């Protein structure tokens, strides 16, 4: 279906994923039974350009979010004889879409998808300005299409993998045997977790070798071993064979993993580790900040997954800062997904911050630890896992 997307240079600032929007538009056209030989053009502009179009063609002041121009609208009727089928043009202001995305707590791409849907329905003859009943009719159709798009999510329901390091932190506080992270993992699985994550640190401050060995034997879902790319831990991973590993930067003095890997700076050594794991049949995830260069390098050196660091989003102070961090994650997840990487996310997520991330359709798994273990101290682990799972499931049902 010939869909042509074009961008005003100003749109570069927003890191729009054109492949993702193209795919969604094609799905929408199919759902609307538009024939495959029909052309549609979508132009993404800034507020200045849409304001001019709004004044010139609709005699309305100020910028708007979307304008639709059906082909041959108001033009010579002989144009209908043109053999190529043209649906028309949709023009979207990315500036306005960005403001609305933040207002409605959506990702920019989610908002742009809504605007494309709205614009497309106008091209197909729907009009919410003609009467109340037509407005309802158009709104219903919009909902129906967005629902269908949701069911063609890039990934199925977001998975929840639980990091049980902090059960071990409590155990290590007394140097004894309780509580046991292996028992915790079993409870998490019974409550519905899709996987268990543990970080075997060089200093063994929480998870110890015995935990990883026993978890390998007892876990029924998936064991993700988080680790620094150092020789000793690599040898352990190759012997234990977790279902996947997540490589993280590890510093002795840090309280927790502080930032993502600098994949570009450690390209050679990370590529070597990935290759070793590949030969052993262990997929590798690289824990990275939401950054285009890191994603590109991760793909170049053969990572199967990237895990996008959500820490800055969770720690952001004030709505504006948090919205900005969220948009970075959303765009990076889209970019990684389009490159063929599988996408996870995690760090610092809690019962307030998880829903927005779980709603991103390119992220297949979240890795969450501290918030769940902290809540478990009051509610029990089973309840804490189920509460988080409910948030993840509800959010990933949303478009
Ligand atoms: N992902 C990675 C790579 C991590 O290092 C951690 C912390 O161990 C997590 C996810 C989980 O973070 P939190 O415990 O803050 O949920």
Which features does this protein show?
399 residues, alpha/beta, Collagenase (Catalytic Domain), TIM Barrel, 2 domains, eight-stranded parallel beta barrel, four-stranded mixed β-sheet, 16 helices, 16% strand, binds pyridoxine-5'-phosphate
What do you see in this structure?
The model has no long low-confidence stretch (mean pLDDT 91). The protein is 48% helix and 16% strand. The chain is of the alpha/beta class and 399 residues long. It has 2 domains: 3-150, Metalloproteases ("zincins"), catalytic domain (Collagenase (Catalytic Domain), 3-Layer(aba) Sandwich), CATH 3.40.390.30; 159-395, Aldolase class I (TIM Barrel), CATH 3.20.20. The strands form 2 sheets. The protein has an 8-stranded parallel barrel, surrounded by 8 helices. A 4-stranded mixed sheet has the order 1-2-4-3, sandwiched between helices. Bound molecules: pyridoxine-5'-phosphate (PXP). Pyridoxine-5'-phosphate is lined by residues 163, 165, 199, 226, 246, 248, 256-257, 287, 307, 346-349, 367-371.
Percent of residues in β-strands: 15-25%
What is the CA–CA distance across the termini?
23 Å
Overall shape: elongated
- Small molecules bound: pyridoxine-5'-phosphate
Do you know the CATH architecture of the largest domain? Alpha-Beta Barrel
Tally of structural domains: 2
- What is the CATH class name of the largest domain? Alpha Beta
Please state the average pLDDT score: 91
Structural class: alpha/beta
- In the CATH hierarchy, the third-tier topology of the largest domain is known as TIM Barrel
Give, in order, the helices and strands: EHEHEEHHHEHHEHEHEHEHEHHEHEHH
Radius of gyration: 24 Å
Helical content class: 40-55%
Q: Number of helix segments?
A: 16
- The main sheet orders its strands as 5-6-7-8-9-10-11-12
């Amino acid at each position: 279906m010939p869909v042509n997307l074009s961008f005003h240079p100003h749109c570069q600032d927003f890191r729009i994923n054109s492949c993702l929007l193209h795919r969604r538009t094609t799905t929408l056209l199919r759902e609307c039974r538009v024939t495959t030989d029909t052309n549609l053009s979508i132009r993404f502009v800034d507020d200045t350009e849409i304001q001019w179009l709004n004044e010139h063609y609709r005699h309305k002041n100020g910028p708007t979010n979307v304008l639709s121009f059906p082909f041959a609208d108001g033009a010579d009727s002989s144009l209908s004889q043109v053999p190529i089928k043209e649906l028309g043009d949709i023009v979207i202001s990315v500036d306005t879409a960005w403001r609305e995305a933040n207002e409605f707590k959506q990702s920019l791409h989610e908002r742009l998808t809504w605007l494309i849907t709205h614009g497309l329905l106008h091209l197909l003859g729907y009009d919410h300005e003609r009467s109340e009943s037509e407005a309802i009719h158009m709104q219903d159709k919009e909902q129906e299409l967005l629902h269908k798009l949701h069911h063609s999510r890039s990934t199925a329901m977001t998975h929840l993998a639980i990091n049980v390091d902090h059960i071990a932190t409590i155990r290590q506080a007394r140097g004894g045997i309780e509580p046991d992270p292996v028992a915790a993992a079993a409870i998490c699985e019974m409550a519905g977790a899709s996987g268990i994550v543990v970080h075997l640190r060089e200093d063994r401050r929480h998870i110890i070798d015995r935990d990883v060995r026993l978890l390998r034997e007892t876990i029924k879902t998936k064991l993700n071993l988080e680790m620094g790319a150092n020789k000793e831990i690599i040898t352990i991973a190759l012997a234990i064979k977790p279902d996947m590993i997540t490589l993280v930067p590890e510093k002795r003095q840090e309280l927790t993993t502080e930032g993502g890997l600098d994949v570009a700076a450690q390209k050679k050594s990370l590529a070597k580790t990935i290759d070793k794991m590949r030969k052993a049949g262990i997929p590798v995830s690289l824990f990275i900040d939401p950054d285009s260069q890191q994603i590109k390098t991760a793909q170049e050196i053969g990572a199967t997954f990237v895990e996008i660091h959500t820490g800055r989003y969770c720690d952001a102070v004030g709505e504006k800062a948090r919205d900005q961090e969220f948009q970075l994650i959303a765009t990076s997840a889209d970019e990684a997904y389009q490159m063929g990487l599988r996408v996870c996310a995690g760090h610092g997520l809690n019962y307030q911050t998880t829903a927005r991330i779980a709603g991103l359709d390119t992220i297949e798994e979240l890795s969450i630890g501290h918030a769940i273990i902290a809540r478990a101290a009051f509610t029990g682990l089973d309840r804490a896992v189920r509460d988080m799972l409910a948030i993840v499931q509800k959010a990933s049902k949303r478009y």
